[in-house]
């Protein structure tokens, strides 16, 4: 029963390590999870563990109500946010939370990142909105993230960081990377001039091109 989760635990651990190596998180911050909806089991990174020494066995298996099924370590302090996102967004099976610095700087000044790049449409679903401030580790943080991501695959958490979601770990990860990339380019664009958002006409053309709703 638990053995069959090893592959998922390994994938969660590898995704967390990648996000560390890509500078999306610093120290032991950030967290990664995958939710097996069929068996209602969430695999989530452990709290306060260095990503460089984390093993697949360190990834905690638990139910969304907090019951631990496997693991000697405590789950991420943000497990309730992850659980609330899985409850609120039924198409989501993976959640990545980062403190990637350029995107988080917009979360700190309470500014959304507007739709200024063509890639933002297929990867994020549009602009990158903000979830209202809520305490770290709280259910409310998850509720605010669900509200912000009704039609998006990522959002900023005010004065805190970034959340990206997907149907797979790879999809959530690449979206978290694109959030930081969009924030970086928007930041540079503001230094060289006045950024222009995509026009509605071009958004329609892009939606057709990418087969988006
Ligand atoms: Zn955080």
Automatic annotation (TrEMBL):
Residues 10-187 form the Class II aldolase/adducin N-terminal domain. It comes from the Bacteria. It comes from Erysipelothrix inopinata. This is Class II aldolase/adducin family protein. GO terms for cellular component: cytosol. GO terms for biological process: pentose catabolic process. GO terms for molecular function: aldehyde-lyase activity; metal ion binding. Keywords: Lyase, Metal-binding.
